[in-house]
Design a protein that fits this description.
By secondary structure, the chain is mainly alpha-helical. The chain folds into two domains: 98 residues; 140 residues, no CATH class. It is built from eleven helices and four strands, in the order H-H-H-H-H-H-H-E-E-H-H-E-H-H-E. It has a two-stranded antiparallel sheet. Strands 3-4 form a two-stranded parallel sheet. The N and C termini lie far apart (54 Å). InterPro entries: P-loop_NTPase, Sigma_54_int_dom_ATP-bd_1. This is NACHT domain-containing protein.
């Protein structure tokens, strides 16, 4: 197509590939494919003697990815970047060239607010149904709650601390804040898993449509949990790839990760 030789078009393609590579909403394999696509574009431009500006833009994107997503840049792409960084003109900032005032926003895909539109409109727009499998997951998780009376544990901030507090109350305060991580430590058999399960049940009890989704995840049961953890967990719960993508794009999760030190 004629547009493939248009520098503005090629720069736009590079920008979009950079966004995909940097955005964890995509599968790791897809992100790495986007990086490889960038490398191929660089190679093709070099062979065809295209404008240097495009290759500089590609190198800039790869360098930004290397800083923010180190597990994405590997193999041939890493070799390309290392070779370019050894070039004096690149190190001095020639990669920015006449675009030094531009701001590269690699992670520009914004999470939109929860949808309040009708299910019919969602069908017309070909959006996957996520609430039905979520309701099924909720029923399954609540079905296993059992009939035992649960008493929330009291704990303390550190081993040397003397003041004790109710753990459930403290976690509820955490969930209402902007904090991202709450770590519960304790000896084996202290009740950490029981607390995590009780927390999940409480969150599912209070779940509302388009609300935050609680996920109780047994880390030892997930292969390589450091990569695509949500995807792997939801696949086990029979969610489709389209449903997982929709949830990750438009919803929030409360991840209750159990067995961190096992």
């Amino acid at each position: 197509a004629p547009c493939q030789h248009n520098p503005a078009f090629r720069l736009g393609v590079c920008q979009r590939l950079g966004e995909i590579s940097a955005n964890p909403i995509w599968y790791l394999k897809i992100r790495k494919c986007a990086v490889e696509f960038l490398r191929q574009l660089y190679k093709d431009d070099a062979n065809n003697d295209q404008q240097v500006n495009i290759n500089q833009w590609i190198l800039y994107i790869l360098s930004r990815l290397a800083e923010s997503s180190k597990d994405i840049i590997e193999g041939p792409a890493q070799e390309l970047l290392q070779e370019a960084q050894s070039n004096v003109s690149y190190v001095k900032g020639a990669v920015l060239h006449d675009r030094k005032n531009d701001i590269l926003v690699l992670y520009s895909i914004m999470v939109t607010p929860p949808s309040t539109e009708s299910p019919l409109l969602g069908c017309v727009q070909n959006k996957p149904d996520v609430e039905t499998p979520l309701r099924k997951l909720r029923r399954e998780r609540l079905k296993d709650r059992g009939g035992d009376v649960y008493i929330s544990p009291r704990t303390k901030a550190t081993q040397r601390a003397t003041d004790h507090f109710d753990l459930t109350t403290k976690v509820q305060e955490f969930l209402a804040s902007d904090s991202k991580v709450f770590l519960v430590l304790g000896d084996s058999g202290a009740g950490k898993s029981t607390f995590n399960r009780a927390l999940e049940i409480s969150l599912w009890d209070n779940y509302k449509t388009n609300g935050r989704i609680p996920l109780f995840i047994r880390l030892p049961a997930i292969e390589n949990p450091e990569h695509d953890l949500i995807d792997k967990h939801l696949h086990k719960a029979k969610f489709t790839e389209a449903q997982i993508f929709e949830l990750k794009a438009h919803r929030e999760f409360i991840m209750i990760c159990d067995g961190y030190d096992e």
